[in-house]
Design a protein that fits this description.
The protein is mostly helical. It is built from 5 helices and 2 strands; from the N terminus they run ααααββα. Strands 1-2 form a two-stranded antiparallel ribbon. The longest helix has 13 residues. The protein is globular and about 35 Å long.
């Protein structure tokens, strides 16, 4: 068992694990709700001349690379499910 504990500690300190902890925090949930209240429409749809309700909040500079901006409103963007999926797919090269 001690080896598993060591592996867990090593994985817990990776940037992805830190990002996961941020995204599951109650602080993030509050910031996310504030963002959606203040910016209820999808950013990308508005840019394309459409009006669609936003359901997702995306970090402009991702948490993995900039955890210091995780809760900064200027680093957030409200998106609908479809636009969020498109951005994620492009980002991951799909």
């Amino acid at each position: 068992m001690p080896m598993k504990a060591a592996v867990y500690r090593a994985n817990a300190s990776t940037p992805r694990s830190k990002a996961q902890r941020i995204r599951s925090s109650s602080r993030w949930q509050k910031v996310r709700l504030i963002q959606l209240r203040e910016h209820p429409l999808c950013h990308d749809c508005q840019q394309a001349g459409r009006t669609k309700q936003a359901e997702q909040v995306r970090h402009i500079q991702q948490v993995e690379s900039r955890p210091d901006l995780a809760f900064d409103g200027s680093n957030l963007m409200s998106l609908c499910e479809a636009c969020h999926g498109k951005r994620t797919a492009r980002e991951r090269g799909w």
